[in-house]
Design brief:
It contains twelve helices and 19 strands. It is an alpha/beta fold.
Length: 375
C-alpha cells in the first residue's frame, strides 16, 4: 500500500524525525522539511521512558545505541525544595524488566543527531520554511520561503506549537501563555557529584520546581530545568538569563540546589505555552502530530514522547489501514491517540506527576504496537 506514496513531513524535531524514519521503513517515499539551515546541538536535556524506547527499537535498534550513551537512572526522586526531604522515590530502571525497556536521560542534541542518523540524508531538506500549502484532493502542493515548491500525496505537520499547518487549517490563534517560565542550564557533572546530586530528581515547593539530571553515561554533564511563575512579554521563544536571576527565583531552596545554580555559566529562559485540545487532527490529505495538535507544559517530560508515539501510531495506521480512504485512516489515528495525549497534556499542565508516590506504569509501560487499530 505504501509503494510510491509521497509523504512530506514539515518539522524535523523529534516527532517529525521519528515519523520520517518509521514511514521510510514501511516503504513510503518520505521527505522531511525544516526551516533551520542545518542541525545544531541545542543545549537542553530530555528524558525518554520505556514507552518511547520500544518505538525507537524499530529504527534499526536505535534503543540499544542510545542506551550506550545515555544516563540510566534507577529511580526518580522527588524532594522538598527547602529541606531536601524525600517526597517520593519511583523505580525506573530498577524495574526495567517490568517496563520492557530502559528509561534514559540524554542531551537533546545527542538524541536528535542519533535519530537523524536513521534517515537517508538526501530525504532531509534544511532551510525549507513552509509558508503555504494547497490540498487539491489528490496531492498537496507546498510553497517555501526560499522560493522552492514541492508536491506530496500526504502532508504531516510536525512543526510545533506555532504550526503553520495548524494555523491554515484551524485559523490563526496565539498560543496560551501559562504564566510560567523555565530557566535552564548545563553544569559540569563533577560539580554536581561534589554536591552529592541524585542521578535524576525534582525539587518542589508550592509554586515552582527544579528538575536535575545527568545527560550522558559518563555523567559529565548535569542539566537544570525549572518551572516558575513569571511575566513574559517578549515575542521571543527564548531569552538569555543570568545566574543571579536564576538564583533569586530559588532563593529559599536547599543549599544543594543553590550549589547547582552557582556552577551555572550560561543560563537561558523560555515561556511555557499551551493550547486547548483540538476536536480533530486532520483535514483532507493533511494530518498533525505532536505539539502542532497537543502542546503541553513539560512537567511530565512527555511532550516529545507523545510526538514520537503519534509518529508510530500514524505510521501503523497508514501502513496497516492503507491510504485509499485517508479520512478513515486519519480518524483511526485520532481515535487511537486522542484520549492518551489529552490525559498526558492535562496531567503535565497540572504539574502533579510523581510528586507523591504513584505507579507510572500506565505511562511508561505502554506499547503502541500492542494497540488495536479500528477504522
Amino acid at each position: 500500500m505504501s509503494g510510491g506514496v509521497r509523504v512530506g513531513i514539515v518539522g524535523a524535531g523529534l516527532g517529525g524525525v521519528a515519523a520520517a524514519g518509521l514511514l521510510q521503513r514501511k516503504g513510503f517515499d518520505v521527505t522531511l522539511y525544516d526551516q533551520a539551515p542545518g542541525f545544531s546541538r541545542l543545549g537542553a536535556g530530555i528524558q525518554f521512558g520505556p514507552n518511547v524506547l520500544k518505538i525507537l527499537a524499530h529504527l534499526d535498534g536505535l534503543d540499544k545505541k542510545l542506551e550506550e550513551i545515555s544516563c540510566l537512572p534507577d529511580y526518580w526522586v522527588s524532594r522538598n525544595g527547602t529541606d531536601g526531604s524525600v517526597l517520593a522515590k519511583i523505580p525506573l530502571n530498577a524495574e526495567r524488566e517490568r517496563y520492557g525497556a530502559p528509561y534514559i536521560t540524554i542531551h537533546r542534541g545527542d538524541l536528535h543527531q542519533a535519530m537523524l542518523d536513521c534517515i537517508e540524508p538526501d530525504r532531509i531538506k534544511w532551510g525549507h520554511k513552509l509558508v503555504d500549502f494547497t490540498d487539491n484532493g489528490k496531492t498537496v502542493s507546498l510553497e517555501f520561503e526560499n522560493g522552492s515548491t514541492d508536491s506530496v500525496d500526504i502532508l504531516v505537520a510536525a512543526d510545533g506549537i506555532n504550526s503553520r499547518v495548524r494555523e491554515k487549517i484551524f485559523g490563526l490563534e496565539e498560543a496560551l501563555y501559562t504564566g510560567w517560565i523555565a530557566h535552564r542550564a548545563i553544569i559540569p557533572g563533577a560539580a554536581a557529584k561534589a554536591l552529592g546530586a541524585d542521578v535524576n530528581a525534582k525539587w518542589w515547593t508550592a509554586d515552582r520546581h527544579i528538575v536535575c539530571y545527568y545527560l550522558d553515561r559518563k555523567e559529565e554533564e548535569f542539566y537544570l530545568v525549572t518551572g516558575e511563575p513569571a511575566e513574559w512579554t517578549s515575542r521571543a521563544g527564548q531569552l538569555p538569563s543570568t545566574r543571579e536571576e536564576f538564583k533569586a527565583a530559588f532563593a529559599d531552596y536547599h543549599p544543594m540546589v543553590q550549589g547547582y545554580i552557582d556552577a551555572a555559566e550560561t543560563v537561558t529562559k523560555w515561556p511555557l505555552k499551551t493550547r486547548e485540545p483540538l476536536s480533530k487532527w486532520h483535514e483532507g490529505r493533511v494530518v498533525l502530530l505532536g505539539d502542532s495538535c497537543h502542546p503541553m507544559k513539560p512537567h511530565m517530560a512527555q511532550g516529545a514522547a507523545m510526538a514520537v508515539e503519534d509518529a508510530a501510531v500514524l505510521t501503523r495506521c497508514l501502513s496497516e489501514l492503507g491510504v485509499a480512504d485517508l479520512d478513515a485512516t486519519f480518524e483511526a489515528y485520532y481515535g487511537a491517540r486522542k484520549e492518551r495525549a489529552t490525559k498526558v497534556q492535562s496531567i503535565s499542565n497540572a504539574n502533579t506527576w510523581l510528586r507523591q508516590p504513584e505507579d507510572p506504569y500506565w505511562c511508561y509501560g505502554d506499547n503502541v504496537y500492542d494497540l488495536k487499530l479500528t477504522s
